[in-house]
């Protein structure tokens, strides 16, 4: 069982409301999303594990049980070519929950015409394997978003 926590403070939003069919349709896995404040912030690891994929706009951390959690910072933000993002971690790093991974500016993302809404996805999980899914309300960085069993 893995508790997946929020990579940043903001407002929880269910995946059906995410403006990207890959996420809203849970094609890469179930989860939830966080609509961050618009001030510059740091996205932190939602689990203890290893950073197996790291891009300015997205990262995946795999926990000791082999579960991969994707954090995608905004929608269509790959098109920003890293503008407004600064990598803090390195691919291959062993990280603890709450450790900084990427500094970014959700307000700049929004001003560039992209949504800062950030999906947090349990990769290759079945929908029924998540409990306690938070899909609304205010969340703080490090607050539980769901439990993956």
Automatic annotation (TrEMBL):
It is found in: Cytoplasm. Its main location: cytoplasm. Keywords: Kinase, Phosphotransferase system, Sugar transport, Transferase, Transport. Gene3D superfamilies: Glucose Permease (Domain IIA). Residues 20-124 form the PTS EIIA type-1 domain. Pfam families: PTS_EIIA_1 (PF00358). PANTHER family: PTS SYSTEM GLUCOSE-SPECIFIC EIIA COMPONENT. This is PTS glucose transporter subunit IIA. It comes from Streptomyces hazeniae. The lineage of its organism: Bacteria, Bacillati, Actinomycetota, Actinomycetes, Kitasatosporales.
